[in-house]
Amino acid sequence: MYVSQIRAKALGFIVTYAWLMSFVQLSLFAWARSALGAQAAFYGFAAVNLLGVMVAWCLPETRGKTVDEIEVELRKK
C-alpha cells in the first residue's frame, strides 16, 4: 500500500519541520519582544494561534477513519 510505504519518511519530515518551526517561532518572539514590546508580541502571537484554532475548527474530523474513507469524504467537497 502506497500510504504505508511513505509513512515513516513523512513522519520524519513532519517532526523535523515541527522542530524547525519551533526554532523560528522562538527566534521571532525574541525579536518581536525587543522591537515591539512584550505586550504587542504576546498579542501578535495570540492572534496567530487564534487563526490556527479557526482553521482546525473548519477541518473535517478524521479520528477512527481509514485513509480510503478520508479520501472519499474529501473528494465529495
UniProtKB/TrEMBL annotation:
It comes from the Eukaryota. GO terms for molecular function: transmembrane transporter activity. GO terms for cellular component: membrane. This is IolT2 (Myo-inositol transporter iolT2). It is found in: Membrane. The chain crosses the membrane at residues 12-32, 38-59. Keywords: Membrane, Transmembrane, Transmembrane helix. SUPFAM superfamilies: MFS general substrate transporter. Its main location: membrane. InterPro entries: MFS_sugar_transport-like (IPR005828), MFS_trans_sf (IPR036259).
